[in-house]
Each structure stands twice: as C-alpha cells, then as structure tokens.
Amino acid sequence: MKAIQLSEPGRFASITVPDSSAPAADEALVRVHRIGVCGTDIHAYGGRQPFFSYPRILGHELGVEVIAVGSDVSHVKPGDRCSVEPYLNCGKCVACRRGKPNCCTEIRVLGVHTDGGMREELLLPARKLHPSRKLSYDQLALVETLAIGCHAVERAHVEKDEFVLVTGAGPIGLATMQFAVAKGARVIVLDINDARLDFCRRELGVSFTINGATQYVLDALKEITANELPTAVFDATGNPKSMMASFEHPAHGGRLVFVGLFQGDVTFSDPQFHKRELTLMGSRNAQPQDFTRIIRLMEEGRIDTTPWITHRAPFEDVIAAFPSWTDPRTGVLKAMIDVA
Predict the structure, then answer these.
(1) Lowest CB count within 10 Å: 99, 152, 185, 250, which one?
(2) Backbone torsion region of residue 291, taken as left when φ is above 0, otherwise alpha when ψ lies between -120 and 50, otherwise beta
C-alpha cells in the first residue's frame, strides 16, 4: 500500500509498504481517511522533535474507518468511524499500573516512536479506537489535539473564576483554552500573532489577549489580574525562551504546566521559584477517558472544530504542500490531509 515517509529532516518520500495482515484477536484493521498535521509533525520535519528517529511514517491525529476486527473485539465493528488514541502503552509498568498510560515507561506513540498513519491502512490494538456514530472524519482526527489540552487542564485542576494564562495560540494552546474556558476560568492568551489572538477572542470567547511582541507581558498580566498574576499558567509553545520566561508569570502559590516540549534543558531562578512556592508540572499526551469525554462533547455540539481547519490537501499532494504548512506566514492553524 501507499505511504509517505519522512526520510530525514526536510525530506519526504512516497513509498510502498506491505499490506496489513489480518487482525489478531485483540486488534482492528482500519482505513485511514483523515490525518491532522500538528506541531509534532512540523518539529519532526524541521529536525527538532524529541524522542524521534528517522526514517518515520508520521501521522497520529487520525480519523479512521474499521475494516476488520479480531475475535475478542466487541466495542467496534467493521464500518465504524473512530478516533485513534495513538499512545501504545505496555499496561504493566509503574505508570500503567497507577492509571497513567499516557506516560508509560515503554510508550510508543504512532508517528513518533513507531510508524504512524500517513498510509492507507493501519493495524492497531482495538482498545485504542474510540467510535462515534455522529462525528465526521475531520472531527475525529481533531479529537487527539483536543485531548492534549483536556488532559493538561485536568492535571492542573483548573477552577471556576481563576485567572489562567495560556501561552501559545497554536492547536495545543487552543485546546487548552477550550477546556479552561469550559471550567469557567478567566482565560488570558499570550502570543505574538495578532491573527491568532483575534481567533481566540472571536471563536473561543477568550476575554483577555496579550501580544508579547508589542506589549510588556508582566505589566499586561498585572493590569488584567489586579496585580496578582494568573494562578495557573500553561505554556504550549515548545519554545525554550518562552518556557523559561513563563516562570515569571504565575502568582504566588500558582501552577506552571509545560504542555509543549523541546530538545534541551529548562533553567530558572530557584529563589524566585521557592519564594512563590510554585508547582511545576509536565503534561504528556492524554488519557483514554479524555477521548471519550471529548467525543461526547463534540456530538452534543459543545465543541466546534470547524474554524480550526485552515488548510487541506489530498494524500497525493502532501509532499508538495507540507513545506508551506511549516511557515506561519501562510496562516496555518490546522492542516488536514484527505486520504480516502
């Protein structure tokens, strides 16, 4: 079958891979219909993605159709439309035993540690499929992006009416905002792109925005929060300069959550960190229940992802189109690949 492989940074190749075998008892064979392009894919293309090796078939934001299932599979059947939970965990390690399969010690994320969905068909553990009778393939492909933000907000225990800062208005930042707003938090968005800040106000109902390129961030935060600063700060940039600057932004007793990541070390002032008794968290991937919850919210019409998709290409045009999707000047928010 046809597949697209990232051979090395900056170079894709169209390849042929063996057809998938029949599913084992606990597996499902799926046809890939949609692939969302995310920051992980962009960073891999640019040679900046941690936990990554080449060559690799990208693709972990997937909307798929079930073709066949193994004998032990009952929650999905051929013809079902599903979102894919792309985190293949061992089920046995300390993290898995404690209900945190998202940070399994042996985790293999599709399109990162193991080949992903930029191909026509894929064989998966059936438990990683989350079906919906109502959602389109476009919507199903965006569930994983939303789940990243959902997990981060749940991890930080965001509360109603607290000031929450989200730095980075890309898809992961948008997902984080979406669920912070749903919690009733007073959300502030920090970015350097006016178009994205306008999108946050217009489409997500965010009340406060700061352009870090034209405003002094700390002064703006103090003005918005009556000089107290936000009690929860999420950095979704994956940018080292931004992440290290974010230690200045939480209030005393606040929480700082790194949703994005980069290849390198984070440094900060220990006295300032201890003075405010900050809580620093990493947020990785998402939990199975996040997928279930998001699908329900989307089916109920409480989450609308339609405005997110700004660019689209058929599978055969991906190699030509992808370089433009890495350029912020093209206005890319979320690119979607149509496979079938």
Answers:
(1) 99
(2) alpha
What stretch of H or E contains 309? Answer: strand 309-314
User: What predicted TM-score, i.e. pTM, was given to this entire model?
Assistant: 0.94
Helix axes 171-182, 194-204, angle to 10 degrees: 30
Read off the pLDDT of each residue in 100-120 and give the average, rounded to a whole number: 96
Report domain extents, the chain. Answer: 2-133+305-338, 149-282
Query: Residue 31 has what pLDDT?
Result: 98
CB-CB neighbours of 144 under 10 Å: 27
Question: Tokens at residue 88, please?
Answer: 């293949």
Question: Which CATH superfamily hosts domain 2-133+305-338?
Answer: Medium-chain alcohol dehydrogenases, catalytic domain (3.90.180.10)
DSSP code of residue 319:
H
Q: Which of 256, 263, 193 is nearest to 44 (CA)?
A: 263
Which residue do the tokens 């392009």 mark?
A: 37
Q: How confident is the model at residue 168 (pLDDT cuts 50, 70, 90)?
A: very high
**CA–CA distance, 106 with 95 (Å, rounded to integer):** 10
What are the helix (H) ranges across 157-237?
171-182, 194-204, 217-224
Q: Which fold has domain 149-282?
A: Rossmann fold (3.40.50)
d(CA 262, CA 48): 7
- The reply to whether 2-133+305-338 and 149-282 are identical in fold is no
